[in-house]
Design brief:
With about 400 residues, the protein is an alpha+beta fold. Helices cover about 30% and strands about 15% of the residues. The chain has a single domain, classed as Beta-lactamase, CATH 3.40.710.
């Protein structure tokens, strides 16, 4: 039950929920988008969520910004607008935006050899790897044997990748680079950055600060307390083997959060991610920041570099990558052509539908167990209704 509804000007409806029976859901909704609240709340009613947040931008304006549930399994603290969430590979979309900024500034060229910017990379069969190969998961370095503890050491990981032999001829096919993608793409950005910043600092200076958002690759230790821990669904918790239990401990380890692991360890919230994508496809009506990438640059950055029907060697199913962005044309056809973004393990996602001038983000702390679908089942019904709503308006 909604405890209070406060009407602002006719185009804006703010919904505020305060009591426990409403699952702590609070935030804002523009008139006409109330159905998102109903569907979001249903995820808590059915105990699919512990804590989560959802954000939608349309025509450069925030139309949905909701969060609800609990910060952790103790259920003593609400999941609120101060909560930060590990979003796993959703981070890759932000890395792609950083690389595109460098291309737009003339510092990088997708078609150039990596060795033009990073000479040490040209070893052991990697000499002809292009920037596009790295960004579209065609670099043939999908795995790394380094121990997890070494992931926090950027220099060590870069040296390891320089020495690695590719698993196939780079550029000939693609295979998902789950963790290595971040260091490979991130090092390219670092190599061409005139200010010689760390990758996390580059993200902060070039994307986060101009948009007045929060997205951390390398979390400051003083705000670690705000990070909502990821947890498995209760239905499968007792079925996890020790390896899976250890993974949850690693994912919640402050040392991992504070390291720069750009492929998988980004910490943010739904509104920040949706705002980033909104800034990629247009100006924000809120007057915060400006369009980060030109229309011409976006076409280049989001054009698929995956041949039609090419099967991912690692994931063993069809996937399509542009310059770091996932292409969702087959997955989300009702949102029009050119849908791009990235999703992460457990259910988080951020994407833009340029033809609809819409962006969407969802983050959560209860890790999903359905790995057979790209779009988490918890948001399928929400996206289906949003697609109908948007298409009815056009």
């Amino acid at each position: 039950m909604i405890s209070s509804i406060r009407l602002l000007p006719v185009w804006f409806l703010v919904v505020q929920c305060y009591n426990v029976t409403d699952y702590n859901i609070h935030g804002s909704i523009t008139n006409g988008w109330e159905f998102v609240l109903d569907l979001f709340r249903e995820n808590f009613v059915q105990e699919k969520e512990l804590g989560a947040a959802i954000s939608v931008y349309h025509n450069g304006r925030s139309v949905v910004d909701l969060r609800g549930g609990w910060y952790d399994e103790s259920k003593t603290k609400p999941y609120d607008d101060n909560s930060l969430q590990l979003v796993f590979s959703t981070t890759k979309g932000i890395v792609a935006a950083a690389a595109a900024l460098c291309v737009q500034q003339g510092l990088l060229d997708y078609s150039e050899l990596v060795t033009k910017y990073w000479p040490e990379y040209g070893q052991n069969g990697k000499e002809n790897t292009t920037v596009a190969d790295i960004l579209s998961h065609r670099a043939a370095l999908p795995y790394v044997d380094s121990p997890i503890d070494q992931y926090a050491n950027w220099t060590a990981m870069i040296h390891t990748l320089e020495q690695e032999k590719p698993l196939w001829i780079p550029g000939t096919t693609h295979g998902y680079h789950a963790v290595t993608y971040g260091w490979l793409a991130g090092e390219l950005v670092r190599r061409v950055d005139r200010k010689k910043r760390s990758f996390g600092q580059f993200i902060k200076d070039e994307i986060v600060n101009p948009l007045q958002i929060e997205f951390y690759i390398g979390l400051p230790s003083e705000i670690q307390y705000r990070v909502s821990p990821v947890v498995p669904h209760p239905d499968v918790k007792n079925m996890l083997n020790q390896t899976m239990k250890d993974l949850f401990q690693i994912w919640n380890d402050p040392r991992i959060h504070q390291a720069e692991i750009p492929a998988a360890i980004g910490l943010s919230n739904a509104k920040s991610i949706a705002r980033i994508y909104a800034s990629l496809i247009g100006n924000l009506e809120e007057g915060i920041g400006h369009q980060l990438l030109s229309e011409e640059m976006m076409k280049l950055a989001t054009k698929s570099n995956t041949p039609l029907n090419e099967i991912d060697l690692v994931l063993q199913y069809y996937s399509s990558f542009a310059m770091g962005f996932h292409r969702y044309d087959r997955v989300l056809p009702k949102f029009g052509p050119g849908v791009f973004g990235h999703h992460g393990a457990g259910g988080s996602i951020g994407f833009a539908a340029p033809s609809k001038n819409l962006t969407f983000a969802y983050v959560l702390n209860r890790i999903g167990t359905d790995t057979a679908t790209i779009i988490d089942p918890r948001i399928e019904s929400i996206l289906a209704r949003i697609a109908v709503h948007i298409n009815d308006q056009t």
